[in-house]
Specification:
By secondary structure, this protein is α/β, with parallel strands linked by helices. Strands 7-1-8-9 form a four-stranded antiparallel beta sheet, with helices on one face. A three-stranded parallel beta sheet has the order 4-3-5, with helices on both faces. Strand 3, helix 3 and strand 4 form a beta-alpha-beta unit. Helix 1 runs antiparallel to helix 2. It starts with 5 loop residues before the first helix and ends in a 6-residue tail after the last strand.
Length: 230
């Protein structure tokens, strides 16, 4: 078992193993435990009663965090002509077509989110093996394949968080920073949990939201009472 540092152990001292907390109390504990010199990310992890190996149990979507994520995202857009200009005007960091495809194919990925206009998808489709494993492949279901690239860029820059369930039925995402107020973090967490609940697939049987935990980058996980998220 990995040894934890002094800060982690000190933060864990105030936690009772196995105890479940209402979201407001959990956020307070996480903020107290985030004692490093940098502004730690607060992460929410949700265990869902789904098996994503079945297509009717896949959970995927996007959530616009009401108070932003606190993270500065670099956004790349595949677009031409007027749409390329629209993307640049909206604040996209990298905009291109074949030239951008060649850069990505060469292994240079200097962005966190990828957006494309529909007409660019035959080109972007060639990058599936590069972007897919990183969870960056543009997809109409989460609004990253769209003719409205300006809005998509602003949304990504403003705190839109994509989510996708992993093999073990777990979804996790950064939902703010430790420097946020307790109220802002609670709002963001509830908004994200609500988006995941609305994305419940038709094939999900039994309990959908099994367990939820929040933590800061360097701190211990704090179990959250699932009912307090809804």
């Amino acid at each position: 078992m990995a040894k934890h540092g002094k800060r982690y152990r000190k933060a864990a001292e105030g936690l009772t193993p196995g105890m479940v907390h209402a979201i407001e109390e959990a956020v307070k504990l996480v903020k107290t435990g985030a004692a490093t010199k940098f502004d730690e990310t607060v992460e929410l992890s949700m265990n869902l009663g789904v098996d994503p190996r079945h297509s009717d149990q896949m959970v995927r979507g996007v959530c616009q965090l009401p108070n932003g994520s606190g993270k500065s995202l670099r956004v790349a857009v595949f677009a031409r002509d007027d749409k390329a200009a629209e993307a640049k005007e909206a604040g996209a960091d990298i905009v291109g077509a074949e030239d951008l495809m060649e850069i990505v194919q060469a292994g240079t990925i200097e962005f966190d989110r990828c957006i494309a206009t529909p007409d660019m998808m035959p080109l972007v489709g060639r990058l599936g093996k590069v972007l897919g494993p990183r969870g960056m492949m543009p997809n109409p279901r989460v609004g990253t394949v769209t003719v409205d690239v300006g809005e998509a860029v602003k949304s990504a820059k403003g705190g839109a968080v994509e989510f996708r369930v992993e093999k073990a039925g777990i979804i996790h995402a950064g939902v703010g920073k430790a420097s946020f107020t307790e109220e802002a973090l609670v709002e963001n967490i509830k908004a994200f949990a609500g988006a995941v609940m609305r994305a419940k697939p038709t094939g999900a049987k039994g309990t959908y939201l099994k367990k939820a935990t929040i933590s800061s980058t360097m701190g211990p996980g704090v179990r959250v009472e699932t009912q307090s998220l809804l």
